[in-house]
Specification:
By secondary structure, the protein is α/β, with parallel strands linked by helices. The protein folds into two domains: about 200 residues, Medium-chain alcohol dehydrogenases, catalytic domain (Quinone Oxidoreductase, Chain A, domain 1, Alpha-Beta Complex), CATH 3.90.180.10; about 150 residues, NAD(P)-binding Rossmann-like Domain (Rossmann fold). The chain contains eleven helices and 21 strands. α5 links the parallel β12 and β13. About 50% of the residues are buried. It binds zinc ion (ZN) (2 copies).
Length: about 375
């Protein structure tokens, strides 16, 4: 294949995006070349723009949430991960994380998201001369590893692109020990928070208390995605008041059964633990980058409270496979979360949107997406 494709490359933390053109690879046996359609901008991408993820190197091609069409199939690929026949032109969702399948983490601990031999598309340095098309902010993505899982779908792009955050939520909920009828607190109104809310509800939560915002649009989305009670942190500014409000809505004022921290702010961890009942479960699913520390009291917050503390890292193939029918059911208005669909050349502005009050083109953003168009 002699054609060329574009990759959006970030030169350094808080640097500049440049669109670079490279020759498109001919997919090797067992691999796939994707014509990118839509990529989601995740909080993790924004943090990586600021250099908050230790261990990654720049220049880098970001974008780990993406949907595209098969541009070319390497020899031997005839089906997707679930055995559905695939051909050129089919729309597929890509599972960005690829575990090695043979290390201690993959085989013994059975936690492939902690595999140290694996990798994920969207986290590659562009200095890698072998493969340039390694992330979703590009015209094409080369799925160069034969273990990469793809899932064929007819979902609209604006829904399909949310499968990655849904997979993260499924992983988190599977670690939460939710019981039917539980009262669950969700901290954070981004895509992960709302996805955890959807999955917690489907897992049997009877009452969802959503703490987030800070804008009316995000609170409106929280309600449309099934929150029974919402608390906007811009309106109720005092954490002690929010903790009391949550407790007042629980049985005998003891606190919530399960708390999902999806805000990614260190202080939310302490607040969330204060909202949790004794013997409850706290799931940390908001800190995918290093944004600082928080002080806890091991007696009051953990030991005396008899809590289960769960960290939840990333999404597994299982989360994509179980998440796809959840999205396909269209029980919630997923497409409303996509507030922006912008060309690659606007990535510099996109990365700065959080610093500008999440406003882009005079419109509040929730999930910003990037199309493969360059202009
Ligand atoms: Zn993400
Ligand atoms: Zn492994």
């Amino acid at each position: 294949m002699a054609r060329k494709g574009v990759v959006a490359v970030l030169d350094r933390p808080e640097g500049k995006y440049e669109l670079k053109e490279y020759p498109l690879p001919d997919p090797a046996p067992g691999t796939v070349l994707i014509k990118q359609e839509l990529g989601g901008v995740c909080g993790t991408d924004i943090h990586m723009y600021h250099g908050h993820l230790p261990g990654i190197t720049y220049p880098i091609c970001l974008g780990h949430e993406f949907v595209g069409r098969i541009a070319a199939l390497g020899k031997g690929i005839t089906t997707d991960f679930l055995g559905k026949a695939v051909k050129e032109g089919d729309r597929v969702i890509v599972v960005p994380g690829v575990g090695c399948g043979k290390c201690y983490w993959c085989e013994i601990a059975k936690t492939p998201t902690t595999c140290e031999e694996g990798f994920a598309y969207g986290f590659f340095s562009d200095g890698n001369k072998e493969y340039h098309f390694t992330g979703g902010y590009a015209g094409y993505v080369y799925l160069h590893h034969p273990r990469t899982a793809i899932l064929k779908t007819d979902l609209p792009l604006e829904v399909g692109v949310l499968l990655e955050p849904i997979s993260v939520a499924l992983h988190a909920v599977s670690r939460s020990n939710i019981q039917l009828g539980d009262t669950v607190v969700i901290q954070g109104s981004g895509a992960v928070g709302l996805s955890c809310q959807v999955c917690a509800k489907l897992a049997g939560a009877a009452k969802i208390i959503h703490i987030g915002g800070p804008t009316p649009f995000r609170i409106k989305m929280a309600k449309e995605f099934g929150a029974d009670i919402t608390i906007n942190i811009a309106e109720v500014k005092d954490p002690e008041e929010r903790i009391q409000m949550v407790k007042d809505k629980t049985i005998k004022g003891i606190g919530a059964d399960v708390v999902f921290e999806c805000a990614g702010a260190p202080q939310a961890v302490r607040e969330g633990l204060d909202m949790l009942r004794r013997s409850g479960t706290f799931v940390e699913v908001g800190h995918f980058t290093d944004v600082g520390e928080v002080s806890l009291n091991p007696f009051t917050h953990i030991c005396n409270k008899n809590v289960s503390l769960q960290g939840s890292w990333g999404g597994e193939v299982e989360g994509f496979v179980r998440g796809l029918p959840i999205l396909e059911k269209r029980q919630f208005p997923y497409e409303k979360l996509i507030t922006h669909k912008l060309p690659l050349k606007r990535l510099n502005e996109i990365m700065q949107a959080p610093d500008k009050g999440y406003i882009l083109d005079d419109k509040e953003s929730l999930k910003i997406t990037v199309s493969s168009e360059t202009s």
